[in-house]
Amino acid sequence: MPKSGARLKDVAELTGFSVNTVSLALRDSPRIPDETRDRIKSAAEQLNYLPNQVAKSLVSRETRAIGLILTDMQNPILTNVAQSVERKLAARGYTTLFATSNNNQEEEVRMIDTFRARRADGMLIFPFRHGDLDHIRRLRNHNYPVVLLVGEQGAGIDAVSMDERAGASKATGHLLATGHRRIALIDGGSSLGNPEKMDGYRAAHRAAGVAVCDELLINPTGHSVETGYWAMDLLVKSGHDFTAVFATNDSLALGIIRYCKKHAIRVPEDLSVVGFDNTEFGAFAETALTTVSYDVERITSLAVDRVLDLIAHKTGLPDPRIIQLEPDLLVRESSARAASAKELP
């Protein structure tokens, strides 16, 4: 008998049972006695029998596979999201089909089409542009189960995400509350059409009655540590005064701290730095990073639960549900009270 390619018929011939009995036993049907089921499963293992998943999916109209599309795997938080989603889906008996859009909407559309062609039962998507969702909305309008990993009320699509506006407002508010009045923002998202963190930054300034210094707003072309380093270089060479920097992810913030280390700028004595995401790298940096938490486990649990719930609706999807979790601010060593705070109003 070959080591692979065994069929139900081969298992039936080896055990002396009918193909129907073998099929029922391998699906753990209660109609088959335990002793018979154990004997059939032992024979199937001996023959290295694997079920025909394509045939099963044609019968059940389910592949038990979920597509996961993220934007950029250089961001450690999205790597954590991918790992967490895969674990949670595997625990529920599902396979994860994985892809990245590489911050390109055409690629995002192509991967959505690819997963549809592979008959994925549903998708989890971190969209490239958070407000440009017509191509995803069409899936939802045709009763296809899809859940966004970033989204807002009114999008018309199910979403589970962190409230990025609230998180950015907390980060900026912390710096304002500790006496900083000229706070730089290094934000790789707003130029891509994702303004949430910029909005939170501005909202915190309004709440504190402090004007935003537009010359301190930097839009880098990327989200990496290296991008943060050179964004800080650009900021310093601009000649504008600032006492704090809010970076919209931890990788950017770590690049800023590296620049400061190399150029004898003390953190936090000379400059306070705050990140976003609460990655392991930030927590264990030489100067532990003050940051906004991103609850990967909570978000992925809720998102997986929701997409599987949508899949279970066979006759039409329920109304979209948007869940936004409010993040916590984690104050560590990289931020401190502004040296000139006593002189400020």
From TrEMBL:
<dbReference type="GO" id="GO:0003700">
    <property type="term" value="F:DNA-binding transcription factor activity"/>
</dbReference>
<dbReference type="InterPro" id="IPR046335">
    <property type="entry name" value="LacI/GalR-like_sensor"/>
</dbReference>
<keyword id="KW-0804">Transcription</keyword>
<feature type="domain" description="HTH lacI-type">
    <location>
        <begin position="6"/>
        <end position="60"/>
    </location>
</feature>
<dbReference type="Pfam" id="PF13377">
    <property type="entry name" value="Peripla_BP_3"/>
</dbReference>
<dbReference type="GO" id="GO:0000976">
    <property type="term" value="F:transcription cis-regulatory region binding"/>
</dbReference>
<keyword id="KW-0238">DNA-binding</keyword>
<dbReference type="InterPro" id="IPR010982">
    <property type="entry name" value="Lambda_DNA-bd_dom_sf"/>
</dbReference>
<dbReference type="InterPro" id="IPR000843">
    <property type="entry name" value="HTH_LacI"/>
</dbReference>
<keyword id="KW-0805">Transcription regulation</keyword>
<dbReference type="InterPro" id="IPR028082">
    <property type="entry name" value="Peripla_BP_I"/>
</dbReference>
<protein>
    <submittedName>
        <fullName>LacI family transcriptional regulator</fullName>
    </submittedName>
</protein>
<dbReference type="Pfam" id="PF00356">
    <property type="entry name" value="LacI"/>
</dbReference>
